[in-house]
Fold this protein.
Amino acid sequence: MNYTIRICGEAGQGIQTTGEGFSRLFSLLGYNVFSFQDYESRIRGGHNFYQITFGTDEIYAPKKFLDLLLTFDKKGLEYKNLLRDDGIAIYDADYLKKSEHDEKFINCPFRQLLNNARLKSIFENVVSFALVANILSIDRKYVYKVIYDIFAGKPEDIIEQNIKAVDIGYDFDVKRKVNLPASDSEEKILLDGVKGVGIGAIGSGCKFYSAYPMTPSTGVFQYIGTHAEKFNIVVEQAEDELSAINMAIGASFAGVRAMTGTSGGGFALMNEALSLSGMTETPIVILLSQRPGPATGFPTRTEQGELLYAIHAGHGDFPRVVFAPGDPLECVYLTNKAFDIAEKYQIPAIVLTDQHLVDSLYSYKKDLKLKLKNKDYRLRSADFENYQDYKRHKFLDFTKKIPLIPLAVPGNSRQLVFTDSDEHDEYGHITEDGEVRKRMVERRYFWKIENIRNEISLPKIYGNSDSKIVLIGFGSNLGVLKEIANNKEISVCAIHFSELFPLPLKENSNEFLKIISRSNLTICIENNASGQFQKLVESEYGFKFSHNLRKYDGRPFNYDEVLEDIYAIL
Amino acid sequence: MLSYKDFDNGTVPAWCPGCGNFAILDAFKKALLELGIEPYEITLVSGIGQSSKLPHYLKCNGFNGLHGRSLPVATGISVANHKQKVIIFGGDGDTYGEGGNHLLHAFRRNPNIKLFVHNNAVYGLTKGQASPTTEFGRRTKAQPFGSLSEPLNPIAFAIAMNCSFVARSFSGSPEHLKNIMKMAINHEGFALVDILQICVSFNKVNNFEWYKKRIYEFNADYDLSDKLKAFEKSQEFDERIPLGVFYSNSRPTFEKNIPVIKDKTLVSMQNFPDITSLIC
Ligand SMILES: Cc1ncc(C[n+]2csc(CCOP(=O)(O)OP(=O)(O)O)c2C)c(N)n1
Ligand code: SF4
């Protein structure tokens, strides 16, 4: 069973807080939860919504149809055609000046009730929260608990007023009630993509994070900032993206793990320094949180339009890895892997997310234990003292599997550490010698590409791998792929890629290629217009997809729509 | 005992014979020697330009990065390891042109970085175009109608932004240059030293004789924290060009303002923390 609630209204009306409140409430009750957001680029006004699906099924993707609609603005009423037959809509007739009435609607005079109780209208969302909880037959004590959690540390009177507002909502006579099936498991925890990347970075020992704010990457910048003191991290708001990435490269050169984050426009500015990281072989992790472009695009909406850009950005030949996590847990692990590979191979690593992933909440089992790979690849103090004749850019035979000379921390030894954005010799000093150039390219490019490929994980396969219908996607479409693979109507095999560059070796991608070759219905699904992922996979593996689903309206795919599209193809 | 040779890395500089950069390199080595700073204790950072090649000609740790971007790289290094002495060499194009925005914000942050600008009023490495300090009206191949922008006054700019150490010297006054460099290195905070530099190949106007006629060394006869006096002094740049320290103050450095690195360097804290508390 799953149940979907959409809350809508203007920015500034507390839509997000209410949505998070519901997500917490349902996870507290032990349901699986998935929530996502749709909002405009403005602080007040406009129209936003927050949608929560919860239930006993596994839920990872947006749903098209609604069971309950709670609206604080007129525009929200337009979604009534998405309501299921037994759906419920709640609105305030005074406020919306809506005269027509429909049995699906519950008219609740929020403002008037608050007025009578001498509470400010800002408590509207708390009243509605309690009202919905009551409709869903959820005991009042759980709502109290969520309110106490959200307002923990706030002054006594604020909490008191909120509790009063909860009671108003509960005591409103609703007539219609919904009885939810009991959840069979214990309380869940919630993670979104922001937390996923943030936890991954902190857990990987990130010590320096510099950024210039840009939606939707800012969440991670703020998350790390909030935890900077406790985990000894320096967070700096740079004057621009050029500075942000160069600062991170400087910090990394000096011996700490460093990261920067941005969105497409900022990443465009970082291109030259991405190349600098490649040339100087200074590790760096870049969060590229996509939104629809080109240029400033659709600032608060979602798209997967920068995959090929991430892969090709920067001038000259140099390797990088590009990982596109599919859910918050993958955000943790792939951020960790990005740090590990960046340090091990002395390269830039890009973590590619998007608005949909960073702003969506997923529920996980409470006993979630994370296992990160953390190895320090640097020469520090004593290790470095004993190192004879340190050549930071020592030549490597690219046909052999000898590890790179570790990066050394400058100042940790009497030996010197030098590097250069110009072509350089083994000590890092400028050279114009053609032979040296050739050997440096072999070290920097061939040797690394060859070895990095072996570290890349294979795509994950869900559903019936014998199915003739194969759906393939990457990044934040993991949720929709998993749910389609789980659907009970038609048998679908879903394949998800999260490690996109370099792609796993053809020989190793055996299982994936076998499935593909067996099927005559291969559908590539991606949130962009040009089919970037399709191009990448086709050119790498040399086959052609038979169909594709591309969405570029700034909104994520939802489960029902993808299923309809598959039926349309059949 | 340190000797001059300890700073020599044996590379022959790729500068034109007679270039002012040689004197700047020499003065810097002597300043380090007199201060007793060893090569491994410093990290030199530079961008791109003739001047930015300097770190290659000296024994040191170093990061020779992108055109105009030495300041952010140096800031990252200094925050990661504030025990290192972080020093930048750059040109007027690199620092005041391509890197202008970073300079503005370095003044605000006040990192403990010394910035030595080889100001030859021309782009050397790209062969003679006007730079932000080229005089109004100077014709070049790229400026057929003459440079049509007012030259930047880096000294006045720095004072206006409350830069914590502002000085000018000249590549043709080696003793003065060395002493100013020593003062800058000893200063705690962001130090800008604008060094008037001879470019024998592309700046035929501001040559050695031109400067020798105009420069004079002044010892500030005012309180160095007096911004207005310093500003007044900074306006002098025509028949008479003053060399010396114009302004200095002792506000807290960027690094000192970061609580996380109050007791230890960030690099000494590199670890993998337990993140269980973050999952809830
Ligand atoms: C992004 C970028 N733009 C342009 C250049 C070409 N370039 C190299 S050095 C230079 C100017 C150097 O002038 P200046 O900083 O005054 O140094 P000088 O050579 O005079 O010492 C330019 C424009 C470059 N390397 N990178
Ligand atoms: S071009 Fe000018 S600045 Fe460059 S090396 Fe020659 S003299 Fe020096």
Chain B touches chain A through 55 residues (CB under 8 Å). The mean pLDDT of chain B is 97. Residues 222 and 229 of chain B are 7 Å apart (CA to CA). The longest helix of chain B spans residues 21-35.
